[in-house]
Each structure stands twice: as C-alpha cells, then as structure tokens.
Amino acid sequence: PLISVPVQARLGKLNDHQENLVQGTIEIRETTSSETAEVLALYPLAFPDEELRPVVTQLLELGDGVLSLAAFKANALVGYIIFTDCATT
Q1: Cα 87 to Cα 60: distance, rounded to the nearest angstrom
Q2: Residue 68: is it exposed, middle or buried by C-beta count within 10 angstroms (0-12/13-18/19+)?
Q3: I want to staple 65 with a disulfide (CB 3.0 to 4.6 A). Which of 53, 75, 78, 85 is the partner?
Q4: What is the crossing angle of helices 36-46 and 53-62, to 10°?
C-alpha cells in the first residue's frame, strides 16, 4: 500500500457491525486496471444525482497525468479519489 492508516472513531455506542466499519486499518494505494469496475460501481452510491462514470472512465484512459487512489479496508473498497494534471491561464 501507498499508505496504511489506523482508524479509530469516537462515535459513542456502536453495534458490532458499526464497530468493524470504523475500527482497523485503511490502506490507500494506486488502483489497477482490474479494479476499474469496482471503482465505477462506487460512483452511483456516492453521487446518486450525477452520472460521473463516463468522465472517470475517460480520465482513467488518459494514463499520464492521472493519479487514481483507492482506500481499502479488509480488502473492500471504501473510498476513491482521482487527481489529474491541469493548466491554468
């Protein structure tokens, strides 16, 4: 992983499932092309009112100048961010 971050949240009383979600380690690393489908499946859940998958797909196809990072907890995708080079005038 690029980064391994221990996670501990102070949210009051949690059930076992909630406790599992907020405790442990999140690994952040660059994505691979084999994870594209999993990344794209996350977008409608995070942005239900916007269709961003075509934009993300096009950005990932650019290759150079794109940094695609995913966060995994217990091998499950829990977060995603994509950075691109840009120019300002």
Answers
A1: 18
A2: buried
A3: 85
A4: 150
Q: How far is CA 12 from CA 5, 8, 19, 53, 89, in A?
A: 21, 12, 10, 36, 48
Q: How far is CA 14 from the centre of its chain?
A: 24
- The C-alpha atoms of residue 56 and residue 72 are separated, in whole angstroms, by 19
pLDDT digits (tens, 9 = 90+) for 32-67: 999 999 999 999 988 999 999 999 999 999 878 999
Coil vs helix vs strand at 78: strand
Report d(CA 68, CA 60) in Å as an integer: 8
Q: What is the pTM of this model?
A: 0.73
CA distance 88 to 64: 18
The label of the residue with tokens 């102070």 reads: 10
